[in-house]
Amino acid sequence: MLLLAPSPAAAAAAARRRKVGGSALRVRCSSVRELERSPNPRPGERLPPLREAKRVVLVRHGQSTWNAEGRIQGSSDISVLTPKGESQAETSRLMLLSDSFDACFTSPLARSRRTAEIIWADRDDDLIPDSDLREIDLYSFQGLLKNEGKERYGIIYRQWQKNAANFSIDGHYPVRELWDRAQNCWERILAHEGKSVLVVAHNAVNQALVASSLGWCH
């Protein structure tokens, strides 16, 4: 969960800051293991101005058929939720049942959309699909079993695992593209009038949202 709020100093001068376009942010978030090693976070560095606190809860989709097979999914839209994935989504629904949300943004990919539909089933507002919430674009990796990726793209595959920011495939830098998409998502999430927002997406996208909110994506 992310809680985005104006900084204490900004809150003290709220009226003046509203006239000049917003205030600095302080960010509290749940830990993400892969991000804890990143140096020098600058909370809210690139986020749009925020005048009042906004709560954002991030949920990853349930297990998909390609998860179960060990395939690299990326932004492909072939796999769907397994029975276990449907059960996981139902567990998430029950865990969030007592929470109040004003909106739910979701990746349009089937595995995420279905997860969102299950979680959001008892609520009145429509889901808000956002293409920038799709999983990271992995180009030629997509559809391969993980061991196939290692065998066919040994050096590139290792770069993806060890030096993600500089990982390049098919003329693209997937992680950098993902960071840009995360920034674009924040523009729309924070512009929504709701104070409590649910986001149902994918592992890498959710990590990028957390990282960009802390100023760790450059």
Structure write-up:
Keywords: Chloroplast, Hydrolase, Plastid, Transit peptide. InterPro entries: His_Pase_superF_clade-1 (IPR013078), His_PPase_superfam (IPR029033), PG/BPGM_mutase_AS (IPR001345), PGM_Phosphatase (IPR050275). Belongs to the phosphoglycerate mutase family. The protein is an alpha/beta fold and 218 residues long. It has one domain (2-213): Rossmann fold. It is 39% helix and 13% strand. It has a 6-stranded mixed sheet with strand order 2-1-3-6-4-5. Helix 6 (146-152) packs across helix 7 and helix 8 (174-191) packs across helix 9 (203-213). It is flat.
Question: Concise description?
Answer:
By secondary structure, the protein is α/β, with parallel strands linked by helices.
How are the SSEs placed, and which strands pair?
Blueprint: E1 2-6, H1 8-12, H2 14-19, E2 25-29, E3 54-60, H3 65-69, H4 83-96, E4 103-106, H5 110-119, E5 128-129, H6 146-152, H7 154-162, H8 174-191, E6 196-201, H9 203-213
Parallel strand pairs: 3-6, 4-5, 4-6
Antiparallel strand pairs: 1-2, 1-3
Helix pairs in contact: 4-5, 6-7, 8-9
What is the level 1 CATH name?
A: Alpha Beta
C-alpha Rg (nearest Å): 18 Å
Broad structural category: alpha/beta
Q: Quote the average pLDDT.
A: 85
Would you report the number of β strands? Answer: 6
- Count every helix, treating DSSP H or I runs of 4 or more residues as helices: 9
CATH superfamily: Phosphoglycerate mutase-like
Separation of termini? 22 Å
- Low-pLDDT ranges: 10-27, 29-41
How large a portion of the residues is in β-strands, by DSSP E? 5-15%
Shape: flat
Question: Helix-strand pattern, N to C?
Answer: EHHEEHHEHEHHHEH
CATH architecture: 3-Layer(aba) Sandwich
The share of residues in helices is 25-40%
* Strand numbers in spatial order across the main sheet: 2-1-3-6-4-5
CATH topology descriptor: Rossmann fold
Largest sheet: 6 strands, mixed
Number of domains: 1
